[in-house]
Design a protein that fits this description.
Structural class of chain B: alpha/beta
Oligomer: heterodimer
Order of helices and strands of chain B: EEEHEEHEHHHEHEHEEHHH
Radius of gyration of chain B: 20 Å
Helix content of chain B: 25-40%
Distance between the termini of chain B: 31 Å
Number of domains of chain A: 1
Helix content of chain A: over 70%
Largest interface: A-B, 14 and 21 residues
Strand content of chain A: under 5%
Shape of chain A: globular
Number of strands of chain B: 10
Largest sheet of chain A: none
Distance between the termini of chain A: 74 Å
Strand content of chain B: 15-25%
Order of helices and strands of chain A: HHHHHHHHH
Largest sheet of chain B: 6 strands, mixed
Bound molecules: adenosine-5'-diphosphate, magnesium ion
Radius of gyration of chain A: 25 Å
Structural class of chain A: mainly alpha
Chain lengths: 288, 298
């Protein structure tokens, strides 16, 4: 009996055994990963529920403070971090859209419709979505890093030890700041994106700015703007929740803080685009 | 004053402020295996005393502190608190979140790194618990903050950010924040870790000073004997998650100063080795220095 293990370990396992065991390992790895994602979705939903409950209490319960100052501070921070990039990205998006769509429209003699297409694409879709993606890279990553560093330096524990709830104190202001600020950023993104389209149409496609503006005005209806901004608000909340969740659940020192930021950006982008698809399908069905 | 170790008798002594019974804490490590970090830990803390929890690194001191402040859920056991506002001792493990927060307002905690809020100045750090938990006017808060900072000799650094402070200054600022709400119980996690001997002695002096001036109960977690012998009224010695000995500082001094050959029990030999930092003894067996090295490095 005592001979068997050493005899085994001398002979390398057969190819079949190695294949099966590495498939097994891979499967286990996948299952662990899947389990991780499921538990983090659960964790994020729980965090959202707690955030909303604390928000409710701070508005309607007299003993619970509404941290207006903290919300404004966070809005300024998120806005300052993201606004320049949002504007640059959107100008280019406006240009790209106009240039990409022009040859096809030209073929049908509809070059005047460039403004319509740019306006609708940006206001309904690309404005909010790209703003959210930029926000995840700047505000999301920096919120995750900040909260993670606070966990590592025992600041979050110190909050709890002083009977201050970290969700009420840290997460609620970041959540609402992100939701409010992204709506503002998306409005700016829309305007700047359409300006990009206008400049391209004027400079390259020989469409007069006044004609472009007229066409834009004709093409846009209120539901375009509302559905777009509504999606933006949801994306802003998503990014904040993912960033806070990853920050609060950091493990493993400085390396963990770095991991929290990267994971935040990746998860945010997937979540933004996935949610976008769901909302677009719903709005399509409702005819909005 | 109470001696522990006879469990199951939840002492309702007015003089006992904290009573820990049969505490067990288990962690699941990364390999998915349960590791019991604390087991059958029982002891009492008398009102007004300074109790030092001592032991080698990795023996579970920080875990015990986290259990005491309600940061960790226990696997087993009870921790009864009898703060002044309570008529009868109350079990931490069965408290609601609100009750826990009420209790925590009676605590002051000095974390290992100071744990100052990095986005706030020193003064704002000390003011935060006050402005959050009381309806005191800002001018009054300013006065209290100045007073608390003066106690720890940090008043000149009031408007600095934590990143501008040295390790010792961070701890002193942390101490000012911990005392802001006039706590009944002060917890310290490794107050002298990472400090030079002079600063470390200064922190010890400060702790004794505060304990006298504020008449608080202090619970200090440390692996530094010099510090422990300076500040302790009583010492709880932990070894591998179990209580090895509970005794007064004088009892420990006798053990420390005894010649190893005169000691008969395994526990006494082990304590003697630990207290003197000898590299020969029951702590360091056949497997050489590694255990000992682990023990002496924070
Ligand atoms: N959150 C945790 N998860 C898993 N194991 C832990 C955790 N915290 C502490 N431990 C383990 O518990 C033991 C005691 O840790 P700790 O209480 O920090 O010791 P000490 O403060 O006495 O140095 C160590 O072996 C440590 O690895
Ligand atoms: Mg420790």
């Amino acid at each position: 009996m005592s001979e068997t293990p050493s005899a085994n370990s001398n002979r390398p396992p057969s190819l079949a055994v190695r294949t099966v065991s590495s498939i097994g390992e891979l499967a286990e790895h996948r299952i662990n990963k899947a389990h991780d994602s499921v538990s983090s979705v659960g964790g994020i939903i729980l965090l959202l529920a707690q955030t909303l409950s604390w928000s409710w209490r701070s508005v309607f319960e007299s003993g619970v403070r509404l941290r207006k100052k903290a919300i404004i501070e966070q809005m300024v921070r998120i806005g300052v971090e993201s606004i320049a990039i949002v504007m640059i990205v959107q100008v280019f998006i406006g240009c790209i859209l106009a240039l990409q769509i022009a040859p096809t429209l030209e073929k049908y003699g509809q070059i005047g419709k460039v403004a319509d297409i740019v306006a609708i694409a940006i206001v309904r879709e690309l404005g909010p979505m790209l703003t959210a993606i930029v926000l995840s890279g700047f505000a999301g990553a920096s919120i995750a890093a900040e909260i993670a560093a606070m966990v590592e330096s025992e600041e979050v524990k110190a909050l709890r030890a002083h009977a201050l709830d970290p969700i009420h104190f840290l997460i609620v202001p970041r959540f609402w700041a992100s939701v409010f600020m992204i709506v503002g950023l998306a409005v700016i993104a829309n305007v700047v994106g359409m300006c990009g389209g206008l400049l391209t149409a004027w400079g390259v496609l020989d469409i007069a700015p006044s004609a472009y503006l007229d066409a834009t005005q004709q093409a846009l209806v209120l539901p375009d703007l509302i559905t777009g901004l509504f999606k933006a608000a949801v994306f802003g909340g998503l990014v904040a929740m993912i960033a806070c969740y990853e920050g609060l659940n950091v493990r493993g020192g400085a390396a963990g803080v770095g991991r929290a930021t990267t994971v935040t950006v990746v998860k945010s982008i997937v979540a933004i685009i996935g949610t976008d698809a769901v909302f677009t399908a719903i709005f399509f069905t409702l005819g909005w | 004053m109470t001696k522990t170790s006879s469990p199951s008798d939840a002492t309702h002594d007015r003089n006992t402020i904290i009573s820990v019974r049969h505490l067990r804490k288990t962690f699941t490590n990364s390999a998915g295996i349960d590791v019991t970090v604390l087991d059958s830990v029982s002891f009492d803390v008398a009102r007004g005393e300074t109790l030092v929890i001592m032991g080698g690194s990795g023996c579970g001191k920080s875990t015990l502190l986290n259990c005491l402040i309600g940061e960790y859920e226990l696997d087993l056991g009870e921790i009864h608190f009898q703060t002044k506002d309570l008529i009868a001792p109350k079990n931490l493990t069965t408290m609601s979140a609100d009750e826990k927060n009420t209790l925590r307002k009676r605590f002051g905690i000095l974390f290992q790194s100071g744990a100052l809020f990095n986005s706030l100045t020193v003064g704002e750090n000390v003011a935060l618990p006050l402005s959050e938990h009381s309806s005191v006017k800002p001018e009054v808060i300013d006065m209290i903050v100045a007073l608390k900072l003066q106690l720890v000799h940090m008043l000149p650094h009031r408007d600095k950010m934590p990143s501008q402070l040295s390790g010792g200054q961070k701890k002193r600022a942390g101490l000012a924040r911990a005392t802001a709400m006039d706590p009944e119980i002060l917890f310290y996690d490794e107050p002298s870790a990472g400090l030079d001997p002079v600063t470390s002695t200064a922190i010890d002096e400060l702790m004794m000073d505060l304990s006298k001036k504020l008449a608080v109960t202090s619970i200090v977690v440390t692996h530094e004997m010099d510090s422990a012998f300076r500040i302790a009224d009583r010492i709880v010695m932990l070894e591998k998650g179990r209580v090895l000995k509970i005794g007064t500082r004088q009892e420990y001094e006798v053990l420390r100063d005894a010649a190893p050959a005169t000691l008969t029990t395994y526990e006494d030999q082990l304590m003697n080795q630990f207290l003197n930092g000898y590299n020969i003894g029951p702590l360091t067996n056949a497997d050489g220095l590694s255990e000992f090295e682990k023990l002496i490095t924070g």
